[in-house]
Amino acid sequence: MEHSVAASAPLAGAIVERAFLGILADGFWRHRLLHAMGAAALLLASAVGWHTGNMPDFGVLEEYAEYLFIAFWICGSAFALGTLLHLALVQRDTEPLHTFLKSLGRFVGDAERIANSLNGLGAGLAFISAIGVLKGAIAILSPFAWDKALAQADRILHFGRAPHEWLWFIVQSPLALKIINIAYNFWFVVLITAVFTVCIARKDTKLRHQFLMSFMTVWTLGGFFLAMGLSSAGPCFYERLGFGNDFHALMQALATADRIYPIWALNTQDMLWGGYTGATTGSVGISAFPSLHVAMAVLFALYATRRSRLAGVVMWLFAGVIMVGSVVLGWHYAVDGYAGASLMVAIWKACGYLLTRFESDSAAAESSTMQSPALCGM
Questions:
Q1: Which among 96, 120, 254, 330 is placed 20 to 30 Å from 111, CA to CA?
Q2: Tens digit of pLDDT for each residue in 76-121?
Q3: Structural domain tally of the chain?
Q4: Residue 310 lies in a domain
């Protein structure tokens, strides 16, 4: 009897392994569009990187990584503490730590979740690696030529005044600028959190694919091709590039506020400029049009709205803050944000339509296969 149990253990392990590999393979097939987009982006980045010799600016990436690590540490600790307190005080669990760890084990040991995570994160990491190279190559392939036109378009659309002039009550307040800068940098936390949580979701829904496909599409179409076609640096670099002093007052106001409350945007802008001029190694790229900050904030809002009305309201308000921040911190012309938001809505709808058609075609093909006379005869 003992020999029989011992002999069956390897067999059971092999069956479980084959089952998991089957789940993983099925997940890969479901994610084939995302894998194709990631692979295509890598091929494009390889060609562009070979042509330009461009490499990402790891100095800026490290700075953002530090913010994210601190934020995730705080949020993760707060979540764990909150869960433990809820178990102990609300549910009156006699062993809250044991229950929490058991629940965590089920979470990370779920085969469907692991399959979705590996496929989603794999496609996402391949794509993100490519975008770092593509974004840094924009100014090399297409020198800045649209800043004056975009600045003029801003004035036309805003009744003869630059958008930051309408928002001067914010610009002249160091505290307001600091708060907006915190929100603007928090965008990176929201970005990574959103992409990560969508990737590791257990349920592989159309909404999940719509988010990830929209994310990849807007960074490729807007963040590279459109950005290269209307290559621009943004207000913070306007004077440095010799286009005039239209934004001198704005940058001076930011410098004044920085002496009271550190305005992180200024330091990041200096790092980007150093990468552009060759003062530092590499560059993650300077590019203003369209605003991917605003575009992604709109994507967060579109996704959140489908999940929860309250979450949607919060994220639309966040998108509004990002739009204002992009202007008052000197990163973007207002038209950059308008274009980014419009492009994102169009891409979101297009991806939703494509996925609906894709699901219908796949279902029709599967139904046709199931009803095949040859198969029925078997």
A1: 96
A2: 677 777 777 877 777 777 777 777 777 766 655 566 667 777 777 7
A3: 1
A4: yes
